[in-house]
Amino acid sequence: MNENQSTLAGERTQNSWGHTPGPWFVMANLSGTSPLHPMCSVWSGRETQESIVCNSCMPDNAKLIAAAPDMLAALHAAMNWFTPPNDKKPFPGKQIADAIIKAQ
Known about the structure:
elongated
């Protein structure tokens, strides 16, 4: 585990990047929205819904927001791949592709 990852044991805390640790997920707001203007929330902690990251956002924006921790991790993995001596590891193409799919 590196300095930017949160521990799974005990309470989740902010990581050294300063944001709520992922994964984040989208949840539809069923009250107070209309079919013409559906709204979603983005939460951390899929099982526990530990904290709200973003409230009342459009569904496409919510997907992009929820993918932010995955995209940041993929960018760090890609940067590590370009930085010796870590450049001997396989390129994190699948991690990058998965983050893009989550954001779409």
